[in-house]
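Figure S4 source data
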Amino acid sequence: MNDGVFEESIEGTPQGGNISPLLSNIYLNHFDRRMGDYGYLLLRYADDIVIFCKFVSDAQDALKRAKEILEGELKLKLSPEKTKIAPTRSKGVEFLGFRFNGRWRIPKDKAKKKFKEEIKRRTRRQQPVNLETVIRFLNPVIRGWGNYFKEGTVKTLFGELDGYIRGRLRSFEAKKRNWNTILFTLPEPELRKMGLVSLSSLLNETISCKGKSQTKAAYGKSVRAV
């Protein structure tokens, strides 16, 4: 579209189109295999790529090889602004909502802020609904956000956010009953009985894999059969 007028294009794919990630994976599979043959550890989602190296010299070699493959063999163009070598231990690297810092990977501050804003929006005290309905509104957000980020170093963070969620629900219910929020208590077991999903419970949630019951350990470090 150009100023609201459709113009036919003979190259590229629609941004946000369903087929775009599939075509990207097909085309960049060559890059994945070539870099793997060189022994590099990389993460790629569509055209966003992070390559992990132990030394700066290794990172420089990796960048050189990546350019040779992407620009030389695949005829793609790298973004000068986004293509760089960054120290993970001192500054960290942000990728797909995570911040990688040495051996830790935690949700970005922006991701945490957006999550809390959504929780706050769904627990507005002026809503003409009861607490059970609010919990039903919250659960998809909690489960979706938690399942995505639970592979990171998040045990402490999840506990803190669970406390924030319970506080919002306590404030909501106190308002409905016209009680003092400071004096009003709403025990966690009672919220669980109402169906509230906690982020912490997702860390060790049992999953089904090829017909076997397995438990995914906290931080995503391992999977063990139970």
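Figure S5 source data
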Amino acid sequence: NYGDNTVLQYDDVCKLDFGVQVGGRIVDCAFTVAFNPKYDAIIQASKSGTNAGIKAAGIDARMGEIGGDIQEAIESYEIELNGKTLPIKPVRNLNGHSIGPYQIHGGKSVPIVKGPESEKMEEGEFYAIETFASCGKGYIVEDLECSHYMKVFDAPHTPLRVKSSKALLHCIEQNFGTLAFCRRWLDDLGQTRHLMALKNLVDNDLVQPYPPLCDVKGSYVTQMEHTILL
């Protein structure tokens, strides 16, 4: 968001998550960078987890078994921080996902821990294989200021009484459709006083917010993500 003057420091860990689309066909990818080599192990853990997920993926592959392979890869790492050796674990309430045309989250989930899921991957499907490695609890909650949003893909027509909300929804549909956007882009389009209208769209289940996801304070989480086509 505009006004955020955060500057990365030597001991920061930064995740870069980005998407590219051509005609609604989406590639969703992410990687993690750090400047201090003490974080190499936790970065490598998410890389190994994603590589294990890609290796296990395929036509008729079962989701729960893919999650088991990812979990085993991530948990084979540990990290030393402040004189303590900490286990690295997958974030159990985050998943990879299928991708549809103009729909970043296509309906199927790819777990990153072993589970009973028997749903299978099918030929012709796109998947974002993404894994998250944590030295905290391995469980995240939504927190902090939200900057990213997306129009709900299958949102029904909802009459809006607030004029500014109607105008903002029209702006979102014309410029982003059902693809993700950030508040800064709304500012750039002249929607500089959009907060209340945006909240109204969220309250009416027309727009989904995507706030930061946080493990326990003081812990670190890394991510690696690739998109594949079966």
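The chain has a mean pLDDT of 97. The chain is about 25% helix and 30% strand.
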